[in-house]
Specification:
Shape: elongated
CATH topology of the largest domain: Rossmann fold
Strand content: 5-15%
Order of helices and strands: EHEHEHEHEHHHHH
Radius of gyration: 18 Å
Number of helices: 9
CATH architecture of the largest domain: 3-Layer(aba) Sandwich
CATH superfamily of the largest domain: Response regulator
Distance between the termini: 21 Å
Number of strands: 5
Helix content: 40-55%
Structural class: alpha/beta
């Protein structure tokens, strides 16, 4: 089933990271982006969204206020809030507003996908408090290796480029998405190849598959 999904965050790289992750698992989903709560409301008014993944702390209009307006106009929209906070008062406000769940910013990508699958089924997702210290999009790290090697050694920018590469994005598209030159992208790509001990994109894809990163 195809879904209309709206990603709302004031950081472009965060939105791109979420988008790359979701399209890897749900390639047929139609994904739109908004950088604040006001844009989120306008987008939902123009095109009905099935799922809204929205940051809580944003300029112009915070996620909770935006959620109230979105749900007032479209009660069936399933909203998953993203926040670094997990206090009882916030969780109660989210529940009362009609938000379907919350995912904490220190969650792994597997937990994010689990939360999205739950709200797709109409099941609320409200973990009581922030869990592990694993950053979002880092569950592909080699957890059993105590040394920072392979995927675990990638910088945040390299990890983002890694995910876009294995998702099949063309270099020119990646460079434009991340607002960097193709030459800079090539430098990052060579660093990724070196750290992952591969020499080509097909080898990188096999490496990603072996390490459950694809």
């Amino acid at each position: 089933m195809n879904y209309n999904v709206l990603l709302v965050d004031d950081h472009t790289l965060v939105r791109k990271g979420f988008k790359a992750l979701l399209l890897t698992h749900f390639p047929n989903w139609q994904i739109r982006e908004a950088e604040n709560g006001v844009q989120a409301i306008l987008t939902c008014s123009a095109v009905r969204q099935d799922i809204v993944l929205m940051d809580y702390d944003m300029p112009k209009l915070d996620g909770l206020s935006a959620a109230r307006q979105i749900l007032k106009e479209s009660p069936g929209v399933r909203i998953l809030m993203v926040s670094m906070h997990g206090d009882h008062e916030l969780l109660e406000e989210l529940r009362e507003t009609g938000v379907m769940g919350i995912i904490y910013k220190n969650a792994g990508d597997e937990e994010l996908l689990h939360a999205i699958n739950r709200i797709r089924q109409g099941i609320k997702h409200f973990p009581s408090s922030p869990g592990s210290n694993t950053p979002v999009f880092s569950s592909f790290a080699v957890r059993h290796d105590k040394k920072r090697t392979g995927l675990l050694s990638l910088t945040a920018r390299e990890a983002e480029i890694f995910r876009l590469l294995v998702a099949g994005q063309k270099p020119a598209v990646i460079a434009a998405t991340l607002s960097i030159s193709v030459k800079t992208l090539d430098t990052h790509k060579m660093s990724i190849f070196r750290k992952c001990n591969v020499h080509s994109l097909p080898e990188l894809l096999r490496f990603a598959f072996k390490n459950n990163a694809i």
